[in-house]
Description:
The complex is a heterodimer of chains A (about 500) and B (about 475). Chain A is an alpha+beta fold and about 500 residues long. A 6-stranded antiparallel beta sheet of chain A has the order 3-2-1-4-5-6. In chain A, strands 10-9-8-13-21-18 form a 6-stranded mixed beta sheet, with helices on one face. Chain A contains 15 helices and 22 strands. In chain A, strand 19 and strand 20 form a beta hairpin. Chain B is of the alpha+beta class and about 475 residues long. Chain B contains 9 helices and 18 strands. Chain B has helices at about 10-25, 80-95, 135-145, 225-235, 255-265, 270, 335-340, 375-385, 430-435, and strands at about 30-45, 50-70, 70-75, 155-175, 180-200, 205-215, 245-250, 295, 320, 325, 350-355, 355, 385-400, 405-415, 420, 425-430, 440, 455-465. Chain B has a 6-stranded antiparallel beta sheet. In chain B, helix 1 (about 10-25) packs parallel to helix 2 (about 80-95). The relative contact order of chain B is 0.13. Chains A and B meet through strand 2, strand 3, helix 3, strand 4 and strand 5 of A and strand 2, strand 3, helix 2, helix 3 and strand 4 of B.
Amino acid sequence: MELNRDHFLKTFRTDVRQMENIVARALANGGDWCDLYFxxxxxxxxxxxxxxxxxxxxHVDYGVGIRVLSGERTGYAYSESTDYQDMLxxxxxxxxxxxxxxxxNTLxxxxxxSHISSRPGDATTLSSRPGIAKxxxxxxxxxxxxxxxxxxxxxxxxxxxxDIEQRIKFRDSRAAKVIARLSYSYTDILxxxxxxxxTWDSRPLGSVTVSVxxxxxxxxxSKSASRxxxxxxxxxxxxxxxxxxxxxxxxxxxLFEARRPKGGKMPVVMGAGASGILLHEAMGHAxxxxxxxKGQSIxxxxxxxxxxxxxxxxxxxxxxxxNRGACNFxxxxxxxxxxxxxxxxxxxxxxxxxxxxxxxxxxxxGNGRRESFRFAPLPRMRATxxxxxxxxxxxxxxxxxxxxxxxxxxxxxxxxxxxxxxxxVKSGFLIENGRLTAPVxxxxxxxxxxxxxxxxxxxxxxxxxxxxxxxxGKEQSVPVSVGMPTVLVKSLTVGGE
Amino acid sequence: MIMNIKYGITEKEIEAARFCLKCASDLGAEGARVSLSKxxxxxxxxxxxxxxxxxxxxxxxxxxxxxxxxxxxxxSTNLIEKDQLGDFISRAVAATRLLTKDEYRKLPQASRYAKxxxxxxxxxxxxxxxxxxxPDQRMELALAxxxxxxxxxxxxRIVSVECEWNDSVDDNYLIDSQGFEGRHTExxxxxxxxxxxxAEDGKKYSGYSWKASTRxxxxxxxxxxxxxxxxxxxxxxxxxxxxxxxxMVVDCNASSRLVSPLLSALSxxxxxxxxxxxxxxxxxxxxxxxxxxxxxxxTPGKAGSRLFDTEGVATADRVVxxxxxxxxxxxxxxxxxxxxxxxxxxxxxRPVVRPFSxxxxxxxxxxxxxxxxxxxxxxxxxxxxEGILVTGFNGGNCNQTTGDxxxxxxxxxxxxxxxVHPVKEMVITGNMKDLWGSIIAAGTDARxxxxxxxxxxxxKDVTFNA
Lengths: 497, 466
């Protein structure tokens, strides 16, 4: 259901004139940019535990964030009320940044303080036209709830969660405990800025996670599966149930057999899909322009240079329909888009919010995202993946004499300046003489981003986007996704015995 | 009793919380708990000596826990005007009725409630000076000590100096339908700085430093940026170290990471779900006989102290691990019902590792501990002789079901107690039971101002890969 402008203005009990007044107050002390970010989120959850759905609830979050930019400096405040006087108070608090006598970034000031590129034909030029509405900029949204969550009764989802548990226990009698969680949220967003742009968006997000404890001969092992989409309640059904059950019951024998490998440096074959965590940690964060603007990233002076072998594209994409990282608009009102960070091995773009785009004199890339109205936006990833290559995945594995194949992960981390990244492998296999042999689990892999990029020896033809519940935690939590074809990295350090 | 606390909970907001209880009862709830939370955070960030970001955050929300017809649901909202709350509670009651009954969902026994948390100020965690901080003062505090011009060197250039000042007040009010009423109020102040340098070869290194306290007078920028710079410089030119079993000393700024999996595994919720490597370990000696972990929840003036948990149950100072023996699980009312265990407290408040050292002594099990107590990190390293000093963890995880862990580490090779060089791309791997079975020292340097009082720790025979 397409919601119109009036719905959003009514939801937040405001109008354009009022918003203009608030912006004027926020800029009363100076400053060259102000934006308002209204949000109304209802988050729901249901949990099956010990075979029954005995807990659940919903959580309501409502408010408006007001940001003032003075050069590259930020003043930010928010109000949990959209009463006019409360918003004016928040605007006054945010305006303090312009009173600060120390500061004023000379680089930006010399560019007239603009945070918008005027390069013709690009998305920012469109987004900078005053008074433009969502439909005019982006007639084809990347997500839409056919069956809105707000109209669904949580009671209807209880059989779905029970079905997941029953199927898991039917397929594997070792399944001793199953926890199945459904969470879904619907968020209305209204954005207004000092250019007079008014933008709105309605964001559905549904997630199901399944955690299973398997018991056998006195030992317990855990396995989990998850899916998350920007869809409405239509995502709940047989297909999703079967996907989750299949994943949660796959490889259990190997789980009990798995051992730690002998650690050290070795070739690593990253399986298609969730291996995209490598890109997220090793490269994506280092491409976020705030780190580069401050000169802290290991990639800060590498624009236009070759950073990985020819033929490799690395993309951050907000336009995959229904994807957890999809954005019709980012949280600065910039239209969703697909950004090539690396094209044919050459670093071609950072990921920009309006501040960093102004700093570099380029168009924002639609990466200005935030956890909620409580936070100022930052450059953040969306769906980050590597384009498919030409190699056959089986032949990639066959070409490794001794190494490791990894395909399930839980988390990762990176040190921006040094470029050292790690990710935690939940499961994988040893590769011996070109064949997958003994299962392995619970190992951390560590490497250096630029080194790992240049050490990519083969890229498979099997790009897969992983639809798990990935959340990036850089200062704030935002939903993202990752993807990867099968990739061989020449050498990474693997934790082991 | 309503205290006049700047940005604190008002009488009107307390009335709103009471209204929720009454409304829930009127709509048929046999039990309800309401948690009203209000917090204000001010932050000033400085980049290279210039103010970069100023934020003012003010939140208030109501959490509602409903017990209706043997069913249970949790709800929250930040729309807390009376007309909004009425609709919210009606919807919450209706939503709870859709769930399945659970006989173990109950409010705690009233005899277990805290009875000494009337004003929220009993623990002395609120600093009255908070009320007098001005925006200008915040900027001065954030800007203090951010300049490092005299620290330039031919070996590196300073890329950025980021500093951040934070001050906050948290005010929490909890009531339930059995008559519990409690309040907890605390302030927090912190200064944080991160320095990034670029070495001659173009490689970048970052170091950080921070101070935190519940008292304004205890936090200043003095020395932070210089310490952060020293840490960044110390990381230059890392070298690969051979894989193998080595002694590991973990700096007090990083050691909490190793305690966290223990505390998660002690949760009755994890144990009930067979998702704990400490299942069946209550009363058993699992770790080194020298390892003691306490939960000192009621120490006045210390961050992390609290008089009641989220159920209103009174905290107590407790021994969690005593001479390697697991002395308690964290059991809330629900889990007590489900598992048949005696209820304790829902979770840890202020974990404290007792200092000890058996380095150089007879480390065989059963021997009387004769080590010197109260060692600094430097002394621990000196006694260990050779090993790896871990100053931070880079990623990694612990499998809570099995206790198997693998973490990326950053730190230094040391010999004869002295730093030799930073290490490059190293991973430690093992099992939590084995690791804590091999602890050989705990220092006295737990950071002031932190909720978790975990000092520098030393472990023998840890597996390192590089």
